[in-house]
Write a structure and sequence with these properties.
Order of helices and strands: HHHEEEEE
Mean pLDDT: 87
Number of domains: 2
Number of helices: 3
Radius of gyration: 25 Å
Structural class: alpha+beta
Length: about 140
């Protein structure tokens, strides 16, 4: 029965991690899973608690920093496969772009776009530069 309780604790912590994205609750969830395994093999409650604490601490100090490094790219380093690689790229206006929207073609793919400044208007055929990506919208500026 205590194995089920530990698994429920692990599930709740795992779901809560989805909202915090800090990897702390995920590491505690791993500790709860280890405690559930200890409970499943018949370990006393005190041993289950010890397993939870030891595994959670190991995960927090040993695994969490590595996981955070994998998720976050270092400052100043460009993400050659991500959206940051698009910033600064040239594009061609396909449909009039102003502060409310429009379309550009970037590397053969059409993107929704908005002008960087509210008074700018780009007509079809004009060359622009992508300044920033906000969501699925490219913010553009005259080349």
């Amino acid at each position: 029965m205590s194995a089920i309780i530990w698994l429920l604790v692990a599930l709740v912590l795992g779901i809560a991690e989805l909202f915090s994205l800090s990897f702390v609750l995920l590491m505690l969830s791993g500790g709860a899973i280890a405690a559930a395994v200890a409970a499943a093999v018949g370990a006393p409650v005190l041993v289950q608690g010890g397993v939870f604490v030891v595994v959670s601490l190991f995960a927090l100090w040993g695994v969490r920093p590595y996981a955070k490094r994998l998720r976050e790219s270092p400052e100043g380093e460009t993400d050659s496969l991500g959206l940051r690689s698009i910033e600064g790229s040239p594009a061609v206006v396909v449909q009039r772009v102003d502060n409310r929207g429009g379309l550009i073609k970037l590397d053969g793919v059409e993107w929704t776009a908005r002008a960087l400044e509210g008074d700018q208007v780009f007509e079809p055929g004009e060359d622009v530069n992508v300044i920033e990506i906000r969501g699925a919208t490219a913010i553009v500026w005259r080349q």
